[in-house]
Amino acid sequence: MDASQETRPVRVPGRGTRRAALLCSLAALAAAAVPASAARTRAAPDPVVVVDCFERPQVRPEEYLLACGDGNNRLVGLRWESWGPSAATATGTDMVNDCRPYCAAGRFRPYPVKVTLSHPQAWPDRPDVRRFTMIRLIYTDTAPHPVPKDVTYKLVY
Q1: pLDDT tens for each residue of 26-52
Q2: How far apart are CA 29 and CA 22, in angstroms?
Q3: CA pair distance 107, 68, nearest whole angstrom
Q4: How buried is residue 141: exposed, middle or buried, by Cβ count under 10 Å (0-12/13-18/19+)?
Q5: Would the pLDDT of 108 be above 90?
Q6: What does the pLDDT read at residue 17?
Q7: Less Cβ crowding at N or C end of the chain, within 10 Å?
Q8: Residue 49: which of 126, 113, 115, 114 has the closest Cα?
Q9: Of 122, 117, 42, 130, the residue nearest 83 (C-alpha)
Q10: Which one has a higher pLDDT value, 34 or 63?
């Protein structure tokens, strides 16, 4: 057989080629259906923080000292139900020194409480960080005397 009579197999488009063309078409349609904004990935913003007595930023702390001067009021066992850009909510216990007969001899008493952090603002010491500036305590049983059952404080740190 000479070179002019040599036969080569002829490739007929078959299932593999059709399947590849179909998959490419579907991928192109899917890419066109996704808006450009969804295709971009942005870094998630840093969460809003609560600043403690030592000027450390905290996210979902288990404890939070309310009485920075003398340590006679502390939130403990905080279980955060939410922590978002505008508010954070938790349940826990407010441990308050009864200061009877005076604070050094007093006993810490537990008060179940719901906690809400709110009013985020830029932190003056770190303008790129937002921190909660208000805390609301709702005592679910009794409140420590003479505190009302629903009280809101400004956070100064």
Answers
A1: 344 444 444 444 444 455 568 999 999
A2: 11
A3: 18
A4: exposed
A5: yes
A6: 44
A7: N
A8: 126
A9: 117
A10: 63
Rounded distance, CA 132 to CA 56, Å? Answer: 13
Can you give 60-114 as a three-state secondary structure string? CCCCEECCCCCCCEEEEEEEEEEECCCEEEEEEEEEEECCCCCHHHCCEEEEEEE
Distance between CA atoms of residues 32 and 134, nearest Å: 46
24 by Cβ neighbours in 10 Å (0-12 / 13-18 / 19+) ranks as exposed
Q: Which residues, 6 or more positions from 15, have their beta carbon under 8 angstroms from its beta carbon?
A: none
Cα-based distances in Å from 38 to 19, 42, 85: 28, 10, 21
Q: Which two three-digit tokens encode residue 152? A: 């809101």
pTM of the model: 0.72
DSSP type of residue 1? -
Q: Residue 136 region, left (φ>0) first, then alpha (ψ -120 to 50), else beta?
A: beta
Q: Which amino acid is at 28?
A: A
Give the confidence band of 128 by pLDDT, cuts at 50, 70, 90: very high
